[in-house]
Amino acid sequence: MLVLTVEAWMYAVSLGDDGAELRPLEPWQAGEFLAHIDRGREFIGQYVGLPDRVTDLDSSRAHLQGYADKAAADKGRIYGIWAEGRLVGGVLFVTMDVGQGTAEAGCWLEPSAAGRGLVTRAVRAIIDWAVEERGIHRVEWHVSTANQPSIAVARRLGMTKEGTLRESYLYRGKRQDMEVWSVLAPEWREAKQTS
Fold first, then answer.
1. Which domain of life is it from (predicted)?
2. pTM value?
């Protein structure tokens, strides 16, 4: 179990014994973020539109600035996952409504980091922070029905599949089905106590 403090989120949070870390992603890191997206552009873009939005240094900076603005307004957050000193993926709160107690979490990862449990550990850390520090009651996970690795993360996190939104969004010219998963704060706390 990770215990997080405000000071920890300003710098880095360990994701385990392998040296992986979770850190805020900020606009000044636009070059590193773009290089990371370029390394995984095709892999990430299978299910996530991030590579279509981050195509050059300006769009990389703008994307990170958008999340800096969301963080300042307490409406979202973005974090990078570093392994062996290199940015290899990230997790985020796409949206966060503290007043309503809801948030939508998401993730992406370059292929070199797949299969190591990094996303599960990172999402676990941000959900724990959202529930315990920010009072979030419901965390959602929206995922393409074709994205089996992301669905596996939702299962490992103890989320409940609530349903499938058929052909709910257009991605690269094709209608996609989206699954909605969620975990509620009491379920999250209970699972932590039994693990």
1. Bacteria
2. 0.89
